[in-house]
Specification:
By secondary structure, chain A is mainly alpha-helical. Helix content of chain A is about 75%, strand content about 0%. In chain B, the strands form two sheets. Chain B has a five-stranded antiparallel sheet, with no helix packed on it. In chain B, strands 1-8-4 form a three-stranded antiparallel sheet, with no helix packed on it. Chain B is α+β, with helices and mostly antiparallel strands. The chains are: A mainly alpha, B alpha+beta. At the A-B interface, helix 1, helix 2, helix 4, helix 5 and helix 6 of A face helix 1, helix 2, helix 4, helix 5 and helix 6 of B.
Chain lengths: ~325, ~375
């Protein structure tokens, strides 16, 4: 069967099954198990209302448990076993093996760099763009163009930036704009930017910064708009210059939002896989954890060490997870 | 308000210029690839894409003269055009590889054995000789020419509509579409019901469940790969569309529930309570009131999920693409092209743009909902 038909059939059956489930379960609940009539009408209504939330929640909870909660536990279990030795329990052996690999430490070092540079630059550029475009007559167009890379896949962005970094032999016309500028400003030899150890990490990070700046800008721009006008007016009356207004009045008031943007981008950074995979595949010392994990799991078929490195990613995410949950709970109260 | 006081026109200029600079900086890489996708392989290899927007200066490979010979007042003459198909302007030309631009257009070169060659600016040449050139090798001419900007749709023709091209994107395009649409629609339905329960129904453990959803929002996908692949292989789904739809549904649910719940909580309490007083059941309230009112949030999530599944590489690689490769998606196809056709920018640029075009169109058409969703999802 052609996959497109399969797709249409799935949409149809999926939608019908979902609606059928919700409608059917609701009907059964109201008409069959706890009908709101007879001697126990009132009690039946209450009982039905006790159960109904769980009817509504069941498919979502089931999927969440199966696709997110269970894998976290299972990954932890796998990280303590050896697939080749018939899934025997091996304690921390996978972790010690991982910690002894230089590639892992390279990935850790690079990930730390990514974690510092990308959120900082994205948030910084985003804040700059948000402030600059704020009262511009064509600000919305400018914002929309800076926001655009958000829609582009990491793989598409990798191709876009590979062309920027392209290098041709010295003496011929450069077709990568970076090398063309480099030569134009007096450079002699064109560089293959992605193969210069250490610095190539930054050329990869630029791709993510380019994508994430729009996100930061949109959110910070809304936050800037939400600042009470009086505070800015008062500052102007007191003779503050535009820079003072920005850094002393506006930024402190949107500190919370900046933090949220920062952590959201941090999460994205920790999961970044496609860019490194497509552009260097971890060669020339550009390995990152997510790609290291992919290498271990699907190239080396070493599920133990792969799971161990996935747990490292989970560990790095955990502080943000806890912080988010605590914030959410505070709001609920 | 910056206009009332404390603003200087100099500063306003500086702001305008900085924003122009930022926008250009952000657009340039994409424009470069877009322009490249409309150029031929030769053009891409010989000059930067920015040069294609102006006139093209090219050093052409040598062209050997050819044509019908005729006798003209005692001389054997061959006339013709070096560029019968294109019409570039000849800037300089030469007859030896050591001096490829020795002559200007219209000048005459004296060759051995009394032969002369003249090339004019339009590329027309005239060669004269004392004796017949029949059966002899005619001289070669090197030219440097300039031509107006020239773009082609051939790359798109090759990558999209040429069935014989095994690296084409047409199949991958449909595969991506097949992955994306069910993976966008199914989670919305499931999440909407759950979000309603979490927003407007009272039951013990509700706060805990909301907290769990918030926590699951940030759980890295990487952890789910092996256990779920094992599960899929174990229960017989294997690698395929069903698996990737289920995976995308599961991974998209936390965001869907979170976004929709946040939106639904903000709906006016009066409407819901009035409906309850009038005897509406929860099911009716949900389908007749909440769902239509929540359209903006549903649209926001739909766009997120669509962009995310369309652009995804990792989930497709793990859950969909088997060793036959017949279910490859565009992102994967591009990565493979990067490996095998690393220098062929006409192919890479076109492939990338075929995959980027749809999300970009969605982005510009539905930006309002995307921004709303982002704000609802993160500003708290």
């Amino acid at each position: 069967m052609h996959p497109a038909f399969l797709g249409i059939a799935t949409i149809f059956f999926g939608v019908v099954a979902c609606l059928g489930y919700f409608w059917g379960a609701n009907w059964v609940l109201d008409k069959v198990i706890f009908p709101p009539r007879g001697p126990n009408a009132g009690r039946n209504i209450n009982r039905a209302n006790l159960i109904r939330p769980w009817v509504f929640l069941f498919p979502a909870l089931f999927a969440l448990t199966l696709y997110l909660v269970y894998p976290v536990i299972e990954t932890f279990r796998l990280s303590l076993t050896d697939r080749d030795a018939d899934n025997a329990f091996v304690g921390a052996a996978n972790y010690t093996q991982m910690l002894s690999e230089p590639k892992f430490w390279e990935a850790m070092r690079n990930n730390m760099l990514w974690l510092i540079v990308v959120p900082a630059l994205s948030t910084g550029f985003g804040l700059l763009a948000a402030q600059l475009t704020d009262r511009l007559s064509w600000g919305n167009i400018a914002k929309s163009l800076i926001f655009m890379p958000m829609a582009i896949s990491f793989v598409g962005a990798s191709v876009i930036w590979k062309l920027v970094y392209d290098a041709r032999p010295a003496g011929t016309d450069q077709i990568g704009i970076l090398n063309a500028l480099y030569i134009w400003f007096g450079g002699t030899e064109p560089n293959t930017w992605l193969t210069i150890p250490f610095w190539n990490n930054f050329f990869l990070m630029i791709v993510l910064v380019w994508i994430q700046t729009g996100f930061a800008m949109v959110i910070l721009s809304a936050a800037l708009r939400g600042i009470p006008e009086e505070t800015v007016e008062a500052a102007i009356v007191d003779g503050a210059n535009p820079f003072q207004i920005f850094f002393k009045i506006k930024v402190p008031q949107i500190k919370g939002t900046i933090l949220v943007v920062w952590t959201t981008i941090t999460i994205t950074v920790l999961k970044v896989f496609d860019i490194v995979f497509a552009m260097t595949n971890g060669q020339w010392e550009t390995q990152v954890l997510a790609n290291y994990m992919y290498d271990k799991m699907f190239r080396a078929n070493d599920w133990g060490v792969g799971s161990a490195s996935a747990m490292v990613i989970m560990l790095l995410v955990t502080p943000i997870l806890i912080w988010n949950v605590r914030n959410a709970r505070r709001e609920l109260r | 308000m910056d206009n009332i006081a404390g603003s200087k026109s100099g500063l306003s200029w500086a702001v305008n210029i900085s924003v122009v600079f930022l926008v250009v900086l952000w657009l340039l890489p994409t424009v470069g690839l877009l322009v490249s996708s409309f150029r031929t392989a030769d053009q891409i290899a010989s000059s930067g894409w920015w040069a294609s927007l102006g006139t093209q200066q090219l050093n052409n490979p040598a062209i050997r003269l050819s044509g019908e010979e005729r006798l003209e007042s005692g001389l054997f003459v061959i006339e013709g055009n070096l560029f019968p198909d294109t019409n570039p302007t000849v800037l300089a030309w030469g007859t030896s590889s050591r001096a490829t631009s020795a002559f200007g257009p219209g000048e005459t070169a004296e060759l051995s054995k009394g032969r002369t060659v003249t090339v004019d600016a339009e590329g027309r040449f005239r060669m004269t000789a004392q004796d017949s050139q029949q059966g002899k090798r005619l001289p070669r001419v090197f030219t440097s020419t300039s031509s107006p900007p020239e773009f082609t749709l051939d790359n798109y023709q090759l990558m999209l509509f040429d069935d014989s091209n095994l690296e084409g994107m047409a199949k991958a395009f449909f595969n991506t579409l097949t992955v994306t649409i069910p993976a966008t629609i199914i989670p919305i339905l499931i999440a909407a019901f759950a979000a309603y329960a979490l927003a407007w129904m009272d039951f013990p453990g509700r706060a805990l469940l909301v907290a769990m959803v918030v926590g699951l929002l940030v759980v890295p996908l990487q952890l789910a790969l092996i256990p779920l692949l094992k599960l899929h292989l174990g229960i017989g789904i294997g690698k395929g569309y069903l698996g990737v739809w289920l995976a995308h549904t599961g991974f998209g649910l936390p965001l869907a529930i979170y976004l929709l719940r946040n939106y639904m909580v903000g709906l006016p309490r009066d409407i819901i309570e009035n409906a309850k007083v009038d005897g509406a059941t929860d099911f009716q309230i949900f389908t007749k009131i909440i769902l239509p009112l929540s359209f903006p949030a549903l649209a926001s999530f739909a766009i997120f999920q669509f962009l995310w599944t369309w652009n995804d590489l990792l989930v497709a690689k793990v859950f969909l693409i088997d060793s036959t490769g017949s279910t490859t998606v565009m992102t994967n196809q591009i990565v493979e092209l990067l490996g095998t056709r690393g220098g062929n920018w006409e192919i890479l640029a076109t492939a990338a743009f075929v995959s980027i075009a749809v999300p970009l169109a969605v982005f510009f058409a539905m930006q309002k909902y995307l921004v709303r969703g982002l704000l609802a999802g993160s500003v708290k």
